[in-house]
Amino acid sequence: MTDTASTPNGGAAESPSLNILAQYIKDLSFENPGAPRSLQAREKAPSININVNVNANPLSDAEFDVVLTLNAEAKDGDKMLFNVELAYGGVFRVTGFPQEHMLPLLFIECPRLLFPFARQIVADATRNGGFPPLMIDPIDFAQMFTQRMAEEKVRSQVSANTN
């Protein structure tokens, strides 16, 4: 059964829908190069640097592969304690949305749905590596998207000025 709604011209339009068809680990890496010494108690907490990236690729007109990449590195001074990298993907079916809503859906809403699962995988990997579980704080994907769009705009303006 398909949801439809009337359009002003009397035709039928699909109700907007966003469905997760599949979720998967594309790549997972955990490095603990100093083990077992890296597992010793320390006086101060290590510095942790976390990088986040989102990419989306069309699989068909209505299906998209969205990959959330998390990279967390813990250091004690200049010594790496651990490095965990995760590329966690989801296949999404997106129908009935206006074209201008597609990028925000793919780069804000889809990663927001994937994040709790990716966060748990990172926490489990660090715990299984001998460290306390790394619980990554919630991420503001809307702010990330806005920043990325601003950077793209600047980049396009710079390239237009150099041509």
From TrEMBL:
The keyword Cell membrane does not apply. GO terms for biological process: protein folding; protein tetramerization; protein transport. GO terms for molecular function: unfolded protein binding. It holds the Pfam family SecB. Keywords: Chaperone, Cytoplasm, Protein transport, Translocation, Transport. One of its GO terms (cellular component) is cytoplasm. Its main location: cytoplasm. It is found in: Cytoplasm. InterPro entries: SecB, SecB-like_sf. Belongs to the SecB family. HAMAP family: SecB. Homotetramer, a dimer of dimers. One homotetramer interacts with 1 SecA dimer. One of the proteins required for the normal export of preproteins out of the cell cytoplasm. It is a molecular chaperone that binds to a subset of precursor proteins, maintaining them in a translocation-competent state. It also specifically binds to its receptor SecA. This is Protein-export protein SecB.
